[in-house]
Write a structure and sequence with these properties.
Elements (H helix, E strand, L loop, with lengths): L3 E2 L5 H10 L6 H10 L14 H10 E2 L7 E4 L5 E6 L5 E9 L2 E5 L3 E3 L8 H5 L1 E4 L2 H9 L9 E4 L9 H12 L11 E5 L3 H10 L3 E5 L5 H7 L8 H8 L10 E7 L7 H11 L5 E6 L13 H13 L3 E4 L17 H4 L2
Parallel strand pairs: 1-2, 6-9, 9-10, 10-11, 11-12, 12-13, 13-14
Antiparallel strand pairs: 3-4, 4-5, 5-6, 7-8
Helix pairs in contact: 1-2, 5-6
């Protein structure tokens, strides 16, 4: 019988687990501390639990962590890790050091079913959802774990297509018995999945990033099939119902394609759509992938678009490109070991 993972359990689930193993209910908080604070790799390390009780717990449970199976290092210091999942898939996550800030880009699915035409992950297809255990393991088993300042759900997959596991992972990251992080350290990105977006807005205080990429619905649909299921107009209407001036930040990710979404009419429409919302726009350079008609915009166009939006009241930055040489930059995660298998 395969042992169940303690990593990824909330406090109520840990209480049920220790009770099933014959331990007193208060042991759940001890186990939670060993996992989410001490980051032990085995139950044997839980030394304030008796040997008898540790053995009983080990009969049914394991920590559930798994080390990376591959690591690639970029010339800019970015590192891309390959992690196994509990059901035998492989997913990539990207560690990005930047001065006093260190960000981990985590995956929420093996592959993706959103089908964005400019994304390597979408080309990989969909292999399955990650559990909260699989998501947290990317943090738990990261060699640089203790240096992390931020986590972004911008790796493989659409987080709101796996909303239960993503919400559980973020809740464990922010719970006082868990990692006890501020929600301000976590950003979740989405193309705009109706059910998941609504639940996230109601159940989480973490930052939200929307993959926009084109302000005109018909043009966005040509690039992003998800527009057909939940339109730009619909989710902007929803977002306007929330207060974005305090704890939670709203940002829009905008990959800039040469001659496609970088013209004055796009800039004007972005101002029209986003001007009434307290938000920021992150412009992202398109990184060329094989067999696509897309090309990146020039540096001059990137700067012009940033300045135009900012001057018209929409705070805009150009995101620095990291890890392109190891296919770790935005849109390039594709897990070659899976696709070659």
């Amino acid at each position: 019988m395969e042992k169940k993972s303690l990593l990824g359990m909330n406090l109520d689930e840990l209480k049920a687990a220790v009770t099933e193993a014959g331990l007193p209910a208060f042991a759940a908080k001890q186990v939670a501390r060993w996992i989410y604070v001490q980051h032990v790799s085995s139950i044997d390390e839980m030394t304030n639990i008796s040997l008898k009780n540790r053995e009983a717990l080990k009969e049914r449970y394991a920590i559930g962590c798994a080390a990376h199976t591959d690591c690639q290092c970029s010339i800019d210091g970015t590192r891309k890790y390959l992690f196994p999942t509990r059901d035998g898939q492989l997913v990539e996550s990207v560690y990005i050091p930047d001065g006093e800030r260190a960000t981990l880009c985590v995956s929420s699915q093996a592959g993706c079913r959103m089908g964005c035409r400019f994304c390597m992950t979408g080309r990989q297809g969909f292999q399955g959802n990650l559990s909260a255990t699989d998501i947290l393991n990317q943090i738990y088993s990261l060699p640089e774990r203790d240096t992390l300042t931020n986590v972004v759900f911008m790796g493989q997959g659409e987080p709101f297509d796996n909303i239960d596991a993503v919400l559980k992972a973020t809740q464990l990251l922010t719970a006082d018995y868990g990692y006890a992080w501020s929600p301000k350290r976590i950003t979740v990105s989405t193309v705009g999945v109706r059910k998941g977006l609504t639940r996230f807005l109601e159940e989480s205080d973490c930052h939200l990033a929307i993959s926009l990429h084109n302000p005109f619905p018909a043009e966005r649909l040509e690039m992003m099939p998800a527009e057909n299921a939940y339109s730009l107009t619909e989710f902007l209407t929803l977002l306007k119902q929330y207060d974005w001036t305090h704890q939670r930040r709203l940002s829009f990710e905008y990959i800039v394609f040469g001659g496609l979404n970088d013209m004055p009419r796009h800039a004007k429409e972005l101002v029209k759509l986003l001007g009434p919302i307290e938000c920021r726009v992150n412009l992202i350079r398109f990184h060329q992938i094989p067999d696509t008609p897309f090309k990146g915009a020039s540096e001059e166009t990137m700067i012009w678009l940033r300045d135009y939006l900012t001057q018209h009241g929409v705070t805009t930055t150009i995101r620095a490109s990291r890890g392109q040489d190891i296919y770790a930059a935005c849109g390039l995660l594709h897990n070659k070991k899976t696709t070659e298998a």
